[in-house]
From TrEMBL:
Belongs to the GPI family. InterPro entries: G6P_Isomerase, G6P_Isomerase_C, Phosphoglucose_isomerase_CS, SIS_dom_sf, SIS_PGI_1, SIS_PGI_2. It is an enzyme of class 5 (isomerase). One of its GO terms (biological process) is glycolytic process. This is Glucose-6-phosphate isomerase. It catalyses: alpha-D-glucose 6-phosphate = beta-D-fructose 6-phosphate. It holds the Pfam family PGI. GO terms for molecular function: carbohydrate derivative binding; glucose-6-phosphate isomerase activity; monosaccharide binding. SUPFAM superfamilies: SIS domain (SSF53697). One of its GO terms (cellular component) is cytosol. HAMAP family: G6P_isomerase. Keywords: Cytoplasm, Gluconeogenesis, Glycolysis, Isomerase.
Amino acid sequence: MASGLWNDLKGQVPKMKSAHLRSLMQDQARNDSMFVQNGPMVLDYCRQKVDSETMSKLFELADKTGVEQRKAKMFAGERINQTEGRAVLHPALRAPRSASVCLDGENVVPEVWKVLDAMKAFSDKVRSGEWKGFTGKALTDVVCIGIGGSYLGVEFVYEALKTDPEAAAAAQGRKLRFLANVDPIDVQRALEGLNAETTLVVIISKTFTTAETMLNAKTVKAWLVKELGSADCVAKHVVACSTALDKTQAFGIDSNNVFGFWDWVGGRFSVWSAVGVLALSLQYGFGIVNQFLEGGHAMDEHFQKAPAKENLPLIIGLLDVWNCSMLGHEGVAILPYCQALVRFVPHIQQLDMESNGKRVQMDGSEVPVETGAINFGEPGTNGQHSFYQLMHQGRVIPSHFIGFANSQNPVELPGEAVSNHDELMSNFFAQPDALALGKTAEELKADGIPEKLVAHKTFPGDRPSLSLLLPVCNAHWLGQLLALYEHRTAVQGWLWDINSFDQWGVELGKVLAKEVRGYLTQARKGAADDSKFLSPTKKLLAKYLE
Ligand SMILES: O=P(O)(O)OC[C@H]1O[C@H](O)[C@H](O)[C@@H](O)[C@@H]1O
């Protein structure tokens, strides 16, 4: 994309840098225009360093970069992941049974529902105890083995629903564990207290070649065989979710116990496929997982149909690009005021940073502006007692505040002025204003703060944020929230003209690890050639082997 496209927007930067949020926010009409609703979901972005002219320029940028057309191509199943020659059709995974989503002229929805139906039937059988383990016992516990996109989204949704009353009731007596890291300590942690007789292992890997997953799968298979005394136990205790059916078979998994998906499902968008649906259905029942899928679909509809000025993923994507590429902010803090979202940010980190951590455009030329912000965060209020100090008085980090009108676990104590949830949410409302307005030296002096402390207690303010308010953290709204963040990531990629759907940057480390692995194999046998390593690496390797 020509750098000229950005010039018009660049013209907005000096004006917006010099306008403090304190004055920008005095314009009520401006603020009102930045309060956007999608049903009961609210986005308030008046605490962003933009005015109506900047927003028009941003919407113009979306027009000029063809966001609408690119979006249409994605939903139409075109191979927009050009470097891998693949379509990007994860929305088809959450489309209703009656929908039609075509790839090369063929509707993929019936295939999607065939696997969903099979997962419903299988999870119903396991949950009811009809499916029995090798020694005749019901399988009450599940260990998911997978990493990256084959792990983070599943764990995020599992954690988020753990305290949802309906999901918690459905999960009574069941356990779900995750094994991702190749660190053998993680095996110990994942299996701790589990009985092989009642444990089902779900191996999740799109490619079924990922080194960590394959080694962990072998390790846990060996545990099962040792505990249950026969290799025949695998048929009853191991299932897989993968696109590589030949490889799952080679691993010894009965093809009836493999739940497939397709190459048009990117790893970091795959929680909606067998990757997430199987394990989550085993834990919570398919009905609840279906509510999650329906939530995702509702957001797809919004993203496709809502006009630009009301389109939540588009607006958030535009603001994130504005902050990163024009105002030069390197990070974005994602701050859910909801403990159930404890694993949301790690998932969004992979989703956004693996997608948009790129430096070249579709044609291979360098992007003329900065791309891919560092996404990080923690649930509030915990973060407030940690890195918020830096956000208030150190670096400027644009933030996303995410809150819910209702708690999964409402608590009201007699004698307390507010409910526990209102106490939490008081912070959700206060922090964005504290960041935006700050506190001036004059205000501090008027408060009687001693002169020598004034500088230390001054808050510059003018720190941008946006607030998202949703009704409650349940399966439906989790689906909406995640699909919103997926589309936000895609919008940014389209504005930058990068391919958000490949991930070549993860390859080099894997190749080098293979060389080290080969060297360690030889070295453990006594003879090894370390000549291909850098001398500092040789030195460190020698120390490790010593
Ligand atoms: O699902 P798998 O094929 O095992 O891949 C697991 C993960 O590893 C890769 O290296 C990519 O970085 C991720 O996008 C992917 O989700």
